[in-house]
Amino acid sequence: MSLPCVKQPDVITCKAAVAWGAGKPLVIEEVNLNPPQAMEIRIKVVCTSLCRSDITAWESQAIFPRIFGHEATGIVESVGQGVTEFTEGDHVLTVFIGECGKCRQCTSVSSFSEYTVVHSGCAVKISSVVPLEKVCLLSCGVAAGLGAAWNVADISKGSSVVIFGLGTVGLSVAQGAKLRGASQIIGVDTNPEKGENAKAFGITAFINPHDSKDPIQQVIKNLTDGGADYSFECIGDTGMVTTALQACCDGWGLTVTLGVPKVKPEVTAHYGIFLTGRTLKGSLFGGWKPKSDLPSLVDMYTKKEIQVDEYITHNLPFEDVNKAFNLMREGKCLRCVIHMAK
């Protein structure tokens, strides 16, 4: 008895925004995309949002050409051999860290393309009624900030919090701190325009270092009666890690670092800071397990328990991808959602 013939997916041609050099404008080109191999899925990307880490990699990444992007939502177009979790037509979030349930690390994602192929461990199935143009933010920035507040720092009610950098990640930390009942949530940023908007996410006080004669850590100590219980470095400036540590209180002050540095990846700090009882802690995707935990965040979004839409400041078509890069580089947007289809 012969088995029925199953048609295999073909190589497809699609448009992608290709980076040919550091800081150079992306070029929308036709690329060939292979069919999904074993345990892979091919996704038709619907929306992808621009993350600050894309900008950092674009400005400094040594390996070109390449296609950036990782915060995305889409629809499964085809599946490879052995994939049982997904079927054609499933709505998914892509994630830059995998959870296959068998290994410790998985493949990354490129989403500035009409289609992308990812390991099945790097996608999370979501409800077909959830707006894809909104929840793409949960695949990285918003989830990372909320998780840093809830999972990594475990912010307690009535505590004081200081956040260095009020981009999407920093404001997501603020939202997480607000939902945990923090009494003081201080935002620090050199962009004066961010002060007023930050209040909507929970910031209770805004500090622009350029407006202060005293060191910023001293200003924070004065505001918090000796130092914040928690501080978060969300800039990607390793020099600010020491400042964030100094802004914490003695005994139990915790500093969490989330930013991706452009230069000088090494962190330096006087050992005496740690002898006072302060702790420095890293955060990877806010401590979430993508497949296990992201569906609960999506559910919280649908119940309006967390803010997501409010981070979206711009919606642009795919052909304006370079405009999105310029807006973020100039500090004129939080999240810009790029719509792949016209």
Give the helix/strand layout:
Elements: E1 12-18, E2 27-33, E3 40-49, H1 52-60, E4 71-79, E5 91-94, E6 115-119, E7 123-126, H2 132-135, H3 141-152, E8 160-164, H4 168-179, E9 184-188, H5 194-198, E10 205-207, H6 216-223, E11 230-233, H7 239-246, E12 254-257, H8 271-275, E13 279-282, H9 290-302, E14 312-317, H10 321-329, E15 335-339
Parallel strand pairs: 8-9, 8-11, 9-10, 11-12, 12-13, 14-15
Antiparallel strand pairs: 1-2, 3-4, 3-6, 3-15, 4-5, 5-7
Order of helices and strands: EEEHEEEEHHEHEHEHEHEHEHEHE
Task: Characterize the overall form.
Answer: globular
Identify the quaternary structure here.
single chain
State the secondary-structure class: alpha/beta
The number of helical runs is 10
Cα(first) to Cα(last) distance is 47 Å
Mean pLDDT: 90
Q: How much beta, percentage-wise?
A: 15-25%
**Unreliable residue runs:** 1-5, 103-107
The residue fraction in helices comes out at 10-25%
The main β sheet shows up as: 7 strands, mixed
- Gyration radius over CA: 21 Å
The tally of beta strands, per DSSP, is: 15
